[in-house]
Amino acid sequence: MTQATQPQQSQPQQRGILMTDAAIHQVKLLREQQGKDLCLRIGVRGGGCSGMSYTMDFEDPSNIRPDDEAYDYDGFKVVCDPKSLLYLYGLMLDYSNALIGGGFQFTNPNADQTCGCGKSFSA
Predict the structure, then answer these.
(1) Of 10, 16, 37, 65, which one's alpha carbon is 20 to 30 angstroms from that of 78?
(2) What residue stretches are annotated with the Core domain (predicted)?
(3) Spatial contact of 21 and 93, defined as CB atoms under 8 Å apart
């Protein structure tokens, strides 16, 4: 009696930083304007009205460090250093083109408190 082997199902990539389709689309547009193949680095730094503020900028993929977490999103990488990821794991990045309150929005499940502008938090 032979056992039938079951086809292996590929597991979806687990991402510590999540992005909506609107955010992915906007990041791709902004990256194209740079004219280079860049990755998006997301992190935190001290400051802002609630204690820590979000950082987000494009950088050359050669700057990715061995201890960085990198997540692939349809051809571009989102990178985060391990210290920032402690505060950002599970973050949802969204984008809105609303005239008031538009731009990138951060929904952080680790934030105890968020400021009114949504660009800083405390944990």
Answers:
(1) 10
(2) 17-119
(3) no
